[in-house]
Amino acid sequence: MEARFESVPAVREALGKVDYLADEGIAGVVYLADRLGKPVLVEGPAGTGKTQLAKSVAEILGARLIRLQCYEGLDEAKALYEWNYKKQLLRIQAERNTKETGGNWDEMSDDIFSNEFLMTRPLLEAIRATDPVVLLIDEVDRVEIETEALLLEILSDYQVSIPELGTITATQIPLVFLTSNNTRELSEALKRRCLFLHIDYPDLEREREIVLTKVPDISENLADQVARIVRTIRNLELKKAPSVSETLDWANTLMLLGVQNVTEAEAVDTLHILLKYQTDIAKAAKELTSAPSKFQKTS
Amino acid sequence: MTVVDDGAVPAGLGEPILELLNGFVVELRNAGIPVSLTENLDAMLAVKHIPLEDREAFKYALAATMVKNQSHWKAFETVFEIYFSLRGDQYDLNNQDGQNQDGDDQDQEGDGDQEGEGEGEGQGRGGGGNQMTPEELAQLLYQALMSGDRGLMKMVAKVSVKRFAGMEPGRPVGGTYYLYRTLRNLDLDGVMAKLMEQAREEVGGEMTPLEQRLTNDEYENRVDMLRKEIEAEIRRRLVADRGVEAMAKTLRKPLPEDVDFMHASREEMVKLRRAIYPLTRKLAVRLQRKRLHGRRGALDFRNTVRHSLSYGGVPAEPKFRRPRPKKPEIFIVADISGSVAAFARFTLHLVYAISGQFSKVRAFVFIDGLDEVTKFFEGTEDIVEAVHRVNTEADVVWVDGHSDYGHAFEVFWERYGKEIGPKTTVLILGDARNNYHSSQSWIIKAIRGKARSVFWLNPEPRSYWDTGDSIVGEYGQYCNGTFECRNLRQLEAFVDNLA
Questions:
Q1: B271-294+326-498 belongs to which CATH class?
Q2: β-strand A159-162 against A166-169: which pairing, if any?
Q3: pLDDT tens per residue, range B318-340
Q4: What is the ipTM score, two decimals?
């Protein structure tokens, strides 16, 4: 198999070109996924760019992104493949009309269980693709634990077994990303087959860079302030800490309001963009407008 | 100049690195991280593709293949730092005091920096460690925090550990002791105050509270970085002195879900509090799903007959009612005296977080008196706040503030006994250390008679039960079950079964 990436820094640079700022860990795992031919399980809080990572990787490789959105009740027919019953029925009818005798059963069954009547779903499509593809299995923690087993064959051997047709093996090993919001523990079997990547909230410098690249025309000063205020808020004990996308929304709002320098009043007025729970907003507003107690005496 | 062995740099993938990796995996398992055989093999494949001199990439490669749970990351990092710590003569404890080492020292300083996170910038300034006067060191510390420069911080850490920690070879003292000694001498609070003063002058007088807050957070962050550098420096020296295996064993810490409630340090408590939130969310989702799935309701006769019409009256497709499992009613009776307070807090937290799964939750706390605290939890989303109010406002002391289970149960029975019905599940939390008061265990028996079930959760290890003044056995005989609940893992398992 041909390697897609030269080295870890190369991955990082390429991702940077499509405006995805990867840290050392992210770039390293993507590189390893390519070299070892293993899927990547991406975990982390909502809104930290897990799905975006798969999209960006597809973009730099010029590959097609095949996405399987998981949900409760997802089954084989929706994830792997399905037989096109209607077409099969039509085929049988047509057969009957041409040959009054009804035809040979064996011949017929061979015929209606062939590629022509197979409807591919995302997983099978990724396996059969001849062009470069990136497979994204989104929010895998939403499927029931039994359904997870569906994925195992694909993830470890890159193949799909269809009883009527035999085993379909991938012509090329696609890059696979699974994302999880960690609402439940995934099974050991699944975890064992994947490389694990935890994407956490970015640190101050990275967040500032992200704001600078993603928000057009923002000044360095404002980006810095935004990143610092968000860090302070994340350090509070909140029900839901602000995600990166919320940071970006906030920065955009501040730009629209023509703010150059965030003051307390402005910060408090726009907090509802960063935080979604009333209790969180109240708490953050209180914290931001009161100086740290340790130094109140001296001021 | 000494050749510094990075521990992770032998060219190619020879025997030594495999051996080191094996030891590493064994230690990871010792620390409680499950590493399977395939994962071990993956790691060995992975490191082949990573340039070994890139320490960070090496670390991430190992983590990606072997650590599949974020809460294990901290433990992994500690083991990694020990196994692949920077090694070399400059960390040798025997080597540090001789004056003739000074020339050497300067060289090594350079080496040490380059192989770390690659921030070699700080080395030129300041010079070798030992000739520095205390004033110079203080100045350097101030500068390092002011600029937030990683290289400078490393340097400060190196010099101050050498100077203040007073490390002696072979002395069986843990890293925390050295850390304490070093930090005490650095007077970080003073420096912080000075930095804030400086920042205030820069903006010209008054800072708005927001600015103050941000500046303060920034400096606190830097101080934290420095503290980590100091810890790393101490660890490196300890590893050099005592060897990898011994250090790994001393520094081994339980994973967050295994931390004992009763003996958690302040730091561990903070981690536990952080860990409990995602856990409650997970639990709530899981219970919700369990309620909706997996169970079938009773046969819906009308619906079945109606559908049978399309099959000519044959009930070919039985229809069932939507399952509506009954939600239990929960009474929590918690001992919140000093020794078990933390446990009660976590349990209250957990139960209230999933209160949607119960039709009613009522909470009572006691020491030797008893008070209902349900109202603190109602109408607030902030459980932390509510628990805080429980601790400060509830009227739980009757005589002397020592646990008296007997009296507390008497009050409970007298005031609330009538309200216990056949749907009620009563949870009693406590270590049953009754200070030799009378047990009044007939009350538990009476409660059992009225309630659906009574469970006792004890945060003490099972082997301590019924020793000294613990009378959990006497109460336990009337309960539907007594459970040992020492850590989050056990607590989670219990609550999961409860709903």
A1: alpha beta
A2: antiparallel
A3: 888 776 666 778 888 888 877 77
A4: 0.82
